[in-house]
Design goal:
The chain is built from nine helices and eight strands. By secondary structure, the chain is an alpha/beta fold. The strands form two sheets. Strands 2-1-3-4-7-8 form a six-stranded parallel beta sheet, covered by helices on one side. Helix 3 links the parallel strand 3 and strand 4. Helix 2 crosses helix 3. The chain is globular and about 45 Å long.
């Protein structure tokens, strides 16, 4: 059986963010496809018009229908186009893995009040660092992150998604909790956290804890590889 694993990074990042994980999964025999989503290419001149729908289409195009199994791994903000993929073509994904993120509900926008055409990493750097998102990253990794990060297309941050196919709730799903515990995820969802509002819609969602910061592909790549491989089967 041939299993394809598609790796989708979150805001500001490209396929390069998965390098260690990609290599580790390939060594285990998986067909691995790390993505750079539309609007996050390092040499792109105009990112202002890129939409979540366009990014979702790129994910669909990367999922190889000829494989026996297709596993979609989305990190952070990539859960938004990832959820759109499940809504549009739920039969195309055999397993979805959320890395320190969660599926979203219809009408969700990451930040509907965002001003401007892009979201720069520098605008949230201090907040992310102070909040512990960068826990366990080395100075070298932090420097590489800042050097390679590109502006996030603004429309993918502030425009609400349109979802309408409840079949997406039936796609087998696992959430790898890293910067917060699985217990915290459940607690915050129960308290009404907007980004976690959809969790109750997925009664069979599984949780795995991998304590670290928000970027486990750098802080704990070997453990993340092991975890993804165990889920992917």
């Amino acid at each position: 059986m041939t299993t394809q694993i598609v790796l989708v990074p979150g805001f500001w990042l490209g396929a390069w963010a998965w390098n260690d994980v990609t290599n580790g999964l390939r060594e285990r025999g998986y067909d691995v496809a790390p993505l750079t989503l539309p609007g996050l290419e390092p040499d792109r001149d105009d990112r202002s018009q890129v939409t979540v729908e366009e990014q979702a289409e790129a994910i669909v195009a990367a999922l190889d229908r000829s494989k026996d199994r297709r596993v979609l791994v989305v990190h952070s903000g990539a859960a938004v186009p990832g959820t759109v993929v499940l809504d549009r073509e739920p039969e195309l994904v055999d397993q979805v893995i959320y890395v320190d993120t969660a599926p979203v509900r219809d009408g969700y926008a990451m930040n509907a009040d965002l001003e401007g055409d892009v979201l720069e990493l520098s605008e949230v750097w201090d907040e992310e660092k102070e909040g512990g998102a960068m826990r366990d990253l080395t100075d070298e990794q932090l420097a590489e992150f800042r050097a390679k990060a590109v502006p996030q297309p603004g429309r993918t941050v502030k425009e609400p998604v349109s979802l309408g196919n409840d079949s997406r709730h039936g796609v087998p799903a696992t959430l790898i909790a890293t910067s917060y515990s699985s217990e915290d995820y459940r607690k915050y969802a129960a308290e009404g956290a907007g980004f976690l509002a959809a969790l109750p819609d997925y009664p069979d969602l599984q949780f795995v804890d991998l304590p670290t910061g928000h970027w486990p592909m750098w802080s704990k790549p070997d453990q993340l590889v092991e975890t993804i491989a165990e889920i992917a089967g």
